[in-house]
Amino acid sequence: MDYENERCELAAAFRLAFRENWHEGVANHISLAVSDDGKKFLINPAGIHFSRVKASDLLLCDADNPDASLNQKRAPDPTAWGIHSAFHRNEPRARACLHVHAMNATVFSCLKDAFLPPIDQNTARFFNRYGYDDGYEGMGFDSEGERISKTLGPHRILVMGNHGVMAAAESVARAFDELYYFERACETYIKAAATGLPLKVLGDNVAESTAQEWENYPGEPWQKHFDALMAILDEEEPGFRT
What we know:
Blueprint: H1 4-19, E1 29-33, E2 40-43, E3 59-62, H2 66-70, H3 78-90, E4 96-100, H4 103-109, H5 121-125, E5 131-133, H6 142-149, E6 157-160, E7 164-169, H7 172-194, H8 204-215, H9 221-236
Parallel strand pairs: 5-6
Antiparallel strand pairs: 1-2, 1-4, 2-3, 4-7, 6-7
């Protein structure tokens, strides 16, 4: 199988991540499981900038077969393999995994207190709804990736302490939408905190009900969000599909 639709959605995620300024040189990685058990996945090869990724560039890897995955032409970066193979091996529900060093989420990951206070409806969306890894020991090779992959919990966002952020969800659209709003939530909190003025924090009951409203919002808004962005790409840079 060539996974044409999956390749196009994943390539779009790279181009859109670039537009959101979530890229970092030719580092960071996005992957998508394509097998029922989640262990076969597509991922970007090392050295291609997010703004130039095409559907045909994406590599097919097997989380249980590092030799074949890392010895193929234009293999993935070893840290990409270490983190993403572990997620696809240990978290089958995490079909799409977007790992980036988006600026505001990364700043948040560097704070000693990992609590994101619910001060607006975007921050409230993630009230008690993100995992946190507090064991940073390096770049993300095999042992680091194994530990990180076990800290997501029941959530779709993982704050990787002193490192960055991972969105892990059932589809590219859902993972992208989660990351988009988490980055905005972190930006709101950081800018509000930077004023030095007291924060107007929502009560736990309001924060929880708001988070539930996000979860139960009708009509799969994450898919509509991603479809709208893909339509823009189709107009402005359709080469991502090739």
